[in-house]
Amino acid sequence: MRTTGLFTLGAIALGVAASAAADDHEMRHHDAHQHGKVEWYIAQDNNMLLVEMTAPGSDIVGFEHAPENDAQRAAIQAALEKLSLPDSLFSVNEEAKCSLVEHLVSQTLVSEEEHEQHDDHDHDHDHDHDHDHDHDHDHDHDHEEHEGHDGHEKHDEHDGHEEHEASKHGEFSAQYTFACENPQHINTVTTDWFNAFANTETIAIQALTDKGVAAGDLTKASTTFRF
């Protein structure tokens, strides 16, 4: 779902929160993208409540590299769908009467372009399969000569590609905007995140509401954050 300027307002509010809790923010920033640790940022703007989450790919799908097979691609898609249902992940106390008005989920393990290229590759592979047998015999000799000439170079390129992929640390992000009928009654956020994504050990939260700046950690044994 496309977002509006609400997330821009949230970013401003979160910047204020970070400035007001500089020491805590600096510590969390230093530990960014720590496996088992998810970051939540919460900001209230009048009757709007904005929640932003960032999680390592290892927490969500068990890996942080580009998908290598259909099972991993399916896992990414399933995770995005799960993140699109915030009611199953967390809830604000009922007295605030907050309703979801928009959301955005994304990931950096694979780009849309790469996804489309994979689909095209599958189609081309199926289309050309019938021709492979006819041409294999004719090209065996040329293929061997080609490998002997520049096989080493191609091997080096492949190694470089693997090193590049290994250096990437994919993550998932989610942004949610809620409209609250009684924002003055926003008191707690309770999460079921640890049941949905068992690899997460800690959720680090920074928040800015009318009650002031707050920060804290949630764990499997402590799943409610109080503003």
Structure description:
- This protein is an alpha+beta fold.
- It folds into two domains: 6-109 and 170-226, Sandwich (Immunoglobulin-like), CATH 2.60.40; 114-168, no CATH class.
- 45% of the residues lie in helices and 28% in strands.
- The chain contains six helices and nine strands.
- Strand 1 (37-45) and strand 2 (48-56) form a beta hairpin.
- The chain is globular and about 50 Å long.
- Mean pLDDT is 76; it is low at 1-5, 16-31, 118-127 and 129-167.
What is the molecular shape? globular
Second-tier CATH architecture of the largest domain: Sandwich
Approximately how much helix is present in the residues? 40-55%
- Roughly how many Å apart are the termini? 28 Å
Give the beta-strand count.
9
Low-confidence stretches: 1-5, 16-31, 118-127, 129-167
What's the CATH topology name of the largest domain? Immunoglobulin-like
Please give the order of strands in the largest beta sheet: 4-5-2-1-7-8
Residue fraction in strands: 25-35%
What is the name of the CATH class of the largest domain?
Mainly Beta
Number of helices: 6
Structural class: alpha+beta
Radius of gyration: 23 Å
Name of the CATH homologous superfamily of the largest domain: Immunoglobulins
N-to-C series of helices and strands: HHEEHHEEHEEHEEE
| Rounded mean pLDDT score | 76
Integer count of domains:
2
Largest sheet features: 6 strands, mixed
SSE layout and pairing:
Blueprint: H1 6-20, H2 22-30, E1 37-45, E2 48-56, H3 57-60, H4 70-83, E3 90-92, E4 98-107, H5 112-167, E5 171-180, E6 188-191, H6 193-196, E7 202-209, E8 212-218, E9 224-226
Parallel strand pairs: 1-7
Antiparallel strand pairs: 1-2, 2-5, 3-6, 4-5, 6-9, 7-8
